[in-house]
Amino acid sequence: MIKNFWDQRYSENETVYGDEPNLFFKSFIDTNKPGTILLPAEGEGRNAIYAAQKGYTVDAFDYSEVARNKALKKAEALGLSNIHYEVKDIADFEPTKQYDAVALIYVHLPEPLRKAFHSKIVNAIKPGGYLVLEAFSKEQIQFKSGGPADPALLYDAPSLCADFQLLHIISCGQKQIHLSEGKFHNGTADVLRLIAQKL
């Protein structure tokens, strides 16, 4: 049922979260040496395409085939051949290889699935590799700029730090920002931003 919701949303809108990459993600990509990167729940490919343009080899997945097809169509139009994009449910994800970076950009999950998935993500990062995460905080519930309506799907810093306690936390902060990412992420928002490294 959720898959149908997202397929419909991606079908009915030219873009859901815009064409430009997430700014926090962009900052990481712009200041780090290209390598391999994994992008779960990648949607229409805005972050995958940016990383690929900067020389990264990108693996991405989403459970919306509509989103995957839109992403690959954009990548093809730009002449990008370094994006491998699968249709896959997060619940079915198993780390079969390791990456220089994994980026979780607004990947909101119920607690049991979140903990299990985040544990797998740690295993998908190479020694020396990075995790980049931006997500809505619990305080986002007061804003109308996007994100889950269910408070249980919003995050707090202690929970995220506990999920990634096997990584070295470089920065973990909560702040209010102005989102301008298409029609569904727009306005004042309260977000968590995390960068961690596997030592």
UniProtKB/TrEMBL annotation:
Keyword Repeat attributed: no
Methyltransferase domain span: 41-129
Keyword Signal appears in the UniProt entry: no
Name of a matching Pfam family: Methyltransf_25
GO molecular function: methyltransferase activity
Gene3D superfamilies associated with the record: Vaccinia Virus protein VP39
Single Gene Ontology BP annotation: methylation
Keywords assigned by UniProt, alphabetized: Methyltransferase, Transferase
PANTHER family assigned: PUTATIVE (AFU_ORTHOLOGUE AFUA_2G14390)-RELATED, TRANS-ACONITATE 2-METHYLTRANSFERASE-RELATED
Descriptive protein name: Methyltransferase family protein
Organism: Hydrotalea sandarakina
